[in-house]
Write a structure and sequence with these properties.
Elements lengths: L7 H10 L4 H19 L2 E4 L1 H16 L10 E5 L26 H9 L2 E6 L19 E2 L2 E5 L5 H8 L5 E6 L5 H7 L2 E4 L19 E6 L2 H11 L25 E5 L9 H16 L3 E5 L7 H16 L17 H12 L2 H14 L5 H24 L2 E5 L15 H6 L5 H5 L4 E9 L2 E9 L4 H13 L1
Parallel strand pairs: 2-3, 2-6, 9-10, 9-11
Antiparallel strand pairs: 1-3, 4-5, 6-8, 7-8, 7-12, 11-13, 12-13
Bound molecules: glutamine.
Length: 469
């Protein structure tokens, strides 16, 4: 049996029955990583000794019969989430040698469950990007076609699951970073409601948008991980007291909205066909499909690419060559700042810091930042109105499947435009899931299922029923 093919549930069943141990599982994954990672570049760090020690601990728990579903199951973590005593680079040269002094809350929770952490996965620098190419440590290749990107920013987390180098991974999503790479790699990516999972220990990109979520082989696994990591955390003031509870939602009569703005010019016809076919499947299962309008969609990117960078310019001020990471010697303090940031940050990060600083500066604040926040309200209202009429919204995740490495790397605007379907709901803090529903050639295509706040149950239950057809 190839242990690396198993889902969380299957691992759990096997561990329970004694078909294999957590050490067996962990070794199988370490082996696979050794074989595949050089080419794919999904992992930035593999903690062989640490993972095997955790697996041994898990096996003891399993022997005592007192263990939960994640116990002994090997996973990997996006390298923007802190795992104590391990390097946390955020895909940046500026944090190349930075070692995390504490566990993120999600890691604390996974460790309590007895998870085995194989290592840290590649990403766009500081989670800024949609292809993985902004990583200071090289792009991650798409396991389905190695000449193509694996999506971003959770590039390594998606590729690791798709290439069976981890059972599941954690990613983070600010404007699509879980859902888009999940779609490009043909796996399930869940970006939960803003506030449902603690952000404590996640290196910040845009704090009003950032959210940690799971990347898994199946919808059932997404449920399992979400249940384990969600909940109120006193260390993150934006986290809320909400515990996910699973129950089956009847698709019969369920109203599914399909926004007409999401099928406008620009979407690849083959992608549109696959997504529309998936919508038809839901209809066959009894759902009622209703065309809706989200009229402010066209302003979402402009709003996001002002709000995001504004928050970035504040959040990244701390990387100054003094407090964290890279510090270059200079003739005075300003020189240290200039050299450390100048050499430490990549082009995309610098671009966003400059845009954000400009948008927040006196004289421009009202024209840009405030306007963008007003637009954000309009987008929220669009979704509020839509959810008065429908239970869920179905859309594509991306207008096209995974593109060639280098294809958009020199064109930031083309890269930003690719986020058109994943950003609007994020500005409204809504949950969304990417479900693999077909392929263009060998390239996977995802369906995005968006729910109202804290409606993960509806999303997951419906996704599972479509997954099974
Ligand atoms: N592609 C988007 C960006 O570059 C989303 C990134 C993310 O969700 N972290 O901002």
């Amino acid at each position: 049996m190839d242990l690396t093919k198993l889902t969380i549930r299957q691992c759990h069943e096997g561990l329970k029955k004694g078909d294999f141990t957590s050490v067996d599982l962990t070794k199988a994954f370490l082996e696979k990583i050794k074989k595949n990672n050089k080419e794919l570049n999904a992992y930035l760090l593999v903690d062989e000794a640490g993972a095997l020690a955790q697996a041994e601990e898990a096996d003891k728990k399993i022997e005592s019969k007192d263990f939960g579903i994640l116990c002994g199951v090997p996973c990997a973590i996006k390298d923007a989430i802190m795992v104590k005593d391990q390097k946390c680079t955020a895909g940046s040269k500026i944090l190349e040698n930075y070692v995390a002094p504490y566990d993120a809350t999600v890691i604390e929770k996974l460790k309590k469950e007895g998870a085995v952490i194989l290592g840290k996965t590649n990403l766009d620098e500081f989670t800024m990007g949609g292809s993985g190419e902004n990583s200071a440590f090289g792009p991650t290749k798409n396991p389905h076609d190695k000449t193509r990107v694996s999506g971003g920013s959770s590039s390594g987390s998606a590729a690791a699951v798709a290439s069976e180098m981890a059972v599941y991974t954690l990613g983070s999503d600010t404007g699509g970073s879980i859902r888009q790479p999940a779609s490009f790699c043909g796996i399930v990516g869940l970006c939960p409601t803003y506030g449902s999972v603690s952000r404590y220990g996640l290196i910040a990109h845009g704090s009003s948008l950032d959210q940690i979520g799971s990347m898994t082989k199946s919808v059932e696994d997404a449920k399992i991980v979400f249940e384990a990591i969600s909940g109120k955390d006193l260390k993150d003031a934006t986290s809320v007291d909400y515990k996910f509870k699973e129950s089956e939602v009847d698709l019969k009569g369920l109203k599914i909205g399909v926004p007409k703005e999401y099928f406008a010019k620009g979407i690849e016809p083959e992608v549109e066909k696959i997504v529309r076919d998936a919508i038809k499947k839901a209809e066959k299962l009894g759902a009622k499909i209703i065309e809706i309008s989200l009229p402010s969609t066209e302003y979402a990117l402009a709003s996001y690419y002002i709000i995001g960078p504004s928050e970035i310019s504040a959040n990244l001020a701390r990387f100054d060559g003094i407090k964290y990471g890279l510090s270059e010697p200079g003739k005075d303090l300003l020189d240290v700042y200039l050299k450390s940031k100048g050499h430490g940050f990549g082009a995309e990060v610098k671009r966003r810091i400059m845009i954000g600083t400009y948008c927040l500066s006196s004289g421009y604040y009202d024209a840009y930042y405030k306007k963008a926040q007003e637009v954000r309200q309009l987008i929220k209202q669009d979704f509020e109105k839509a959810f008065e009429k429908v239970d869920l919204i179905f859309t594509p995740v991306s207008p096209f499947p995974a593109f060639k490495i280098g294809e958009k790397a020199d064109d930031p605007i083309a890269m930003y435009l690719a986020d058109i379907y994943t950003i609007p709901m994020k500005l409204a803090g809504l949950p969304g899931l990417s479900l693999p529903v077909g392929k263009v050639g060998k390239l996977p295509v995802g369906l995005q299922i968006i729910g109202n706040h804290f409606q993960e149950n509806k999303i997951l239950s419906v996704a599972e029923q479509i997954e099974k057809t």
